[in-house]
Amino acid sequence: KLFFTDYGNSAKVERCDMDGMNRTWIVDSKIEQPTALALDLVNKYVYWLDIYLDSVEVVDYQGRKRHTIIKGRQIRHLCGLAVFENYLYTFNSDNLSIVRINRYNGTDVQSLARLDNAKEIRVYQKRTQTAVRSHACEVDPYGMPGGCSHICLLSSNYKARTCRCRTGFILGSDGRSCK
User: Is CB count within 10 Å lower at the N or C end of the chain?
Assistant: First the structure.
């Protein structure tokens, strides 16, 4: 799945398959400017930062179990969001610090370090990487991902795929080759 935010005409958090199909709104009320998003892959939760409401909230992948982690002035000027173990990590662009927030109670907020300039934050740790099973976009014996001549996108599950073409090409009638 692909998760993303939008705050154009109607602010929302959405999800879809990797090929863009099955687009679903998972949050579309009491939300203004969702700018950062982080996933808890193990427990299947979506966290987002709303810079207009000065809040960090969470829902499950279906948009249920919504609640606010933290809200108020202490989290103004935040950008970027990452989740690892019991904490959310973000960057305060006002005082240039990395901020750690307890994702279960929201009361344990600490500035960890200062950086000159950042707009995003990521956690890279082996335990956050999911194991990869065989999938529909694996390279075939001819070196083509999923049998697609250009781009292979996973579809509704790891066994299904959709082929797409680079700009300037159109997908052939076979659904795999680009012309």
Answer: C
